[in-house]
Design brief:
By secondary structure, the chain is α/β, with parallel strands linked by helices. The protein folds into two domains: 181 residues, Rossmann fold; 135 residues, Phosphofructokinase domain (Rossmann fold, 3-Layer(aba) Sandwich). The chain is 39% helix and 19% strand. The strands form three sheets. The protein has a seven-stranded mixed sheet, with helices on both faces. The longest helix is centred in the middle third of the chain and has 22 residues. It is elongated and about 65 Å long. The chain starts with a strand and ends in a 5-residue tail after the last helix. Bound molecules: 6-O-phosphono-beta-D-fructofuranose. 6-O-phosphono-beta-D-fructofuranose (F6P) binds next to strand 10.
């Protein structure tokens, strides 16, 4: 059996740990051969491959990024894309594919599986917004990076009596903001699921100043003001899956807080720092277990599924279950955190 492996979408700490586990178990226990497809769906689309075996996987467990490269290529947006993929898989002698990615990459995998391609999915995203799994790998690392940043920003905010706004990733879901905001003791956490009231945010800032404590506001890049007053910034550019490029809410928020409260406010955008570098121990563990179970699914001939974490068990769920609907922060979970706001 010859198995293709690809990683698509934004890079994410733990991708290499999945690749390593898939290959190690695939070679050592199942006697499989592997081929790496470069840069997400671009690899099978254009027939771009690289050798993939135990040798290529040595030393990659703690390394961020992906040795296979990544892209946001959408083969369904390309004329004849599906035929090109099936032709190139056949030409490379590939019997089954392991696709590691988030909603877009696994969305493509779901549609290909429906068309008969033998594919198993592994859920990845720092955003933790894939349904069907309790956690995606990459999220824990991102939360730890954001929390460390908040801890450091506390000291500057306190010393200079400033408001510090920390913009974190999260296009549709506020998981990183919520977890890092709680862990870092933020005075407000603003998430895409719940449009924010700028007056309430400013009131929280004033409360913090009265108690001589530093106001730290954690905001997801996709958060919006309740009145829709246009405080988000989008560049207008869209990727192949139609997502607009976000960024700018932190700066706009800092400006508005300064204007309304008269307190100096600065914004810090954590951006790709959250996705880069070495994965946390939890993410290495989760990514490794996902990889081991994904190659077992291939060995069992069980395709059209995604591996998922449920409690402490790794299970197989239909790909469509993971990609059908985003997993968002519930109103109850968000409300729970509000006792710490202000
Ligand atoms: O999907 C992960 C993610 O990091 C999102 O949080 C973010 O909105 C997006 O990717 C940014 O993507 P890019 O690096 O392609 O701009």
């Amino acid at each position: 059996m010859r198995v293709g492996v690809l990683t698509g979408g934004g890079d994410c700490p733990g991708l290499n740990a999945v690749i390593r586990a898939v290959v190690r178990k695939g070679v050592n226990q199942h006697g499989f051969e592997f081929v790496g497809f470069r840069d997400g769906w671009r690899g099978p689309l254009d027939g771009v491959t690289m050798p993939l075996g135990i040798e290529q996987c040595r030393g990659i467990l703690p390394r961020g990024g992906t040795i296979l490269g990544s892209s946001r290529t959408n083969p369904f947006g390309v004329e004849g894309g599906v035929e090109r993929i099936t032709d190139n898989l056949a030409a490379a002698g590939v019997d089954a594919l392991v696709a590691i990615g988030g909603e877009d990459t696994l969305g493509v995998a779901t549609r290909l599986a429906e068309l008969g391609v033998a594919v198993v999915g592994v859920p990845k995203t720092i955003d933790n917004d894939l349904s069907g799994t309790d956690f995606t790998f990459g999220f824990d690392t991102a939360v730890n990076i954001a929390t460390e940043a908040i801890d450091r920003l506390h000291t500057t905010a306190e010393s200079h009596h400033r408001v510090l706004v920390v913009e974190v990733m999260g296009r549709h879901a506020g998981w990183i903001a919520l977890h890092a905001g709680i862990a870092g003791g933020a005075s407000s956490v603003l998430i895409p699921e719940s449009p924010f009231d700028i007056a309430a945010v400013c009131a929280h800032v004033e409360t913090r100043f009265r108690s001589e404590y530093a106001p730290i506001i954690v905001v997801s890049e996709g958060a919006l003001p309740a009145d829709g007053s246009g405080m988000t910034l989008v560049s207008g550019e869209k990727d192949a899956f139609g997502h607009v490029r976000l960024g700018g809410i932190g700066d706009r928020l800092a400006h508005e807080i300064e204007r309304r409260t008269g307190k100096e406010a600065r914004a810090v955008v954590l951006g790709h720092i959250q996705r880069g570098g070495t994965p946390s121990a939890f993410d290495r563990w989760l990514a490794t277990r996902f990889g081991l179970q994904a190659i077992d699914a291939v060995a069992d001939g069980e395709y059209g599924v995604m591996v998922a974490l449920r409690g402490t068990a790794i299970v197989r769920v239909p790909l469509a279950e993971g990609t059908g609907e985003l997993k968002l922060v519930s109103p109850q979970e968000y409300a729970e955190a509000q006792v710490f706001f202000g």
